[in-house]
Amino acid sequence: MLSSVAGRRRRQTLDVAHRLIATALALLFLLPLLWAASASLRATGVPAPREIEWIPSPIAWENYRTVFRLIELHRFVLNSLFVAALAVPLTIVVASWAGFVISQISRRWRLRLTALSVLCLMVPLTAIWLPRFILFKEAGLINQRIALVVPSLMGTSPLYVLLFTWMFLRVPREVYEAARLDGAGPYRIWAQIALPLGRPMIVAIAVLAFVHYWNSFVEPLLLIRTTDNMTVSLGLRVLHSLDRTSWPLLMTGSVLVMAPVVIVFFLAQRAFMQDAHGRSVLGE
Questions:
Q1: String of b and e for 26-40 (b: at least 16 CB within 10 Å)?
Q2: What is d(CA 188, CA 180) in angstroms, rounded to the nearest whole number?
Q3: What digits encode the pLDDT tens for the residues 31-45?
Q4: Do the beta carbons of residue 231 and residue 84 sit within 8 Å?
Q5: Residue 72 and residue 51: Cα distance in Å, rounded?
Q6: Half-sphere exposure of 245 (CA within 13 A, CB side)
Q7: Which CATH class is domain 73-281?
Q8: Using CA atoms, how far apart are residues 124 and 141, in angstroms rounded to an integer?
Q9: 42: number of Cβ within 10 Å
Q10: DSSP class of 40
Q11: 71 secondary structure, DSSP code
């Protein structure tokens, strides 16, 4: 009796400690966002404070209207949403296909393809910029928004393929074998069995892919030429080039660009919390 009470108190103490540590880490990561939001409300044309000013005085709400007058931010946002709306679903489909195939083949070939994926992750991005630019130029995709979507046809990143492979390997082999005995083909097993069981992973990779395409800067810089096709990352560069000393306006643009990412993360938070339920479904 006493040992059970002591054990329950110990678990409660550990739970409180974990929550406090998690809250402290969350606040640590939120500080840059809070500082950017605070800096975006400072009046333009005044000297920068010597210390961090969390609540500026006076509060310049007009900075948010000024940004839309200086640049076509709405057009940049629509272009980025167009790219993300096409690239994220394609990334999920292609990366999950590749991950499902790797999880179903023999162990020897699985290890080989996994090692190849890890080697691809180790290739510096700077090494593929020039070949990709030449390829897109020969294909006539320069200054086309669709060029920014093309990497999703290859799963965007080998990391996503490896994550899907790990997710599908968690499903007991007996589940796949039972589906095959019932006459299900590879596509049906992938669509009706593997993907539903990997829903938390799908949401996580969707968020990662959205952040990748939303924040992408080098690819649009290399491939996009006109203002009509620019994304939000290039829009911030345009805003900075208009007035390099107006940091409040630049912070305002940064907050507006970060807002969709924060919203997507909070919308996906429920799916992240369902991972524990997913583990119980998989029998772990």
A1: eeeeeeeeeeebbbb
A2: 10
A3: 888 888 888 888 877
A4: no
A5: 33
A6: 5
A7: mainly alpha
A8: 23
A9: 22
A10: T
A11: S
The secondary structure of 107-139 as a DSSP string is: HHHHHHHHHHHHHHHTS-THHHHHHHHHHHHHT
Distance set, CA 193 to CA 62, 204, 270, 275, 282 (Å) = 52, 18, 21, 17, 11
Residue 55's CB: how many other CB atoms inside 10 A?
A: 7
Q: Alpha-carbon dihedral of residues 193, 195, 196, 202, nearest 10 degrees?
A: 170
Exposure on the CB side of residue 201, measured as CA atoms within 13 A:
26
Q: Is the pLDDT assigned to residue 223 strictly greater than 80?
A: yes
- In Å, what is the CA distance from 223 to each residue of 67, 84, 87, 147, 215? 25, 16, 16, 7, 15
Q: What is the pLDDT of residues 247-258, one digit of tens each?
A: 888 889 889 999
Whole-number Å distance between alpha carbons of 255 and 28: 18
Burial class from Cβ neighbours inside 10 Å (0-12, 13-18, 19+) for residue 142 reads: middle
Place 180 in a pLDDT band, splitting at 50, 70 and 90.
confident
Tell me the whole-structure pTM to 2 decimals.
0.84
- CA–CA gap between residue 238 and residue 157 (Å, rounded): 28
Please give the Cα distance from 80 to 215 (Å, whole number): 9
What whole-number distance in Å separates Cα of residue 20 and Cα of residue 34?
20
State residue 7's pLDDT score. Answer: 63
CA 280 to CA 276: how far, in whole Å?
7
